[in-house]
Amino acid sequence: MEPRGIRNCNPGNIRRTTDNWQGLRSKQTDPDFFQFEAMKWGYRALIRTLRNYRRKHGCQTIADFIRRWAPATENDTTAYITAVCRKMQVPTSFVPDVDERGTMCALAAAISEVENGVPARMEEVEAGWELLDNEK
After folding, report:
1. What would you measure as the largest C-alpha separation in the chain, in angstroms?
2. CB-based contacts of 15: which residues, under 8 Å, 6+ apart?
3. pTM score over 0.90
4. What are the residues facing 36 on neighbouring strands?
């Protein structure tokens, strides 16, 4: 069976809230996590959330982003940070440019792989980026 985040087209396992994301399935059957119509919509939400972590919450380093994304109350945050940085081949102190396609797609792909245990398909990650880029 596919991992939950893949089944839900929610590669970052974004928890359900009152947010009305673009691309949500009309019927949400998972009680805990959003379900999107296609992976590109899940990646769009993931990347947009990460951008907001910088803009609204002041996250600077990869470690800052992951501490917010995967809090210690639910995750082994230190291991999560290490895994993301290893996949991106950057130090925990790396400060990503949230407006740079390659960096943000690499960060989203790394988070997806940690969340789901399978490598992200870069064409799906990039399709999520394109949805955001087209909104400018």
Report:
1. 40
2. 32, 33, 34
3. yes
4. 24
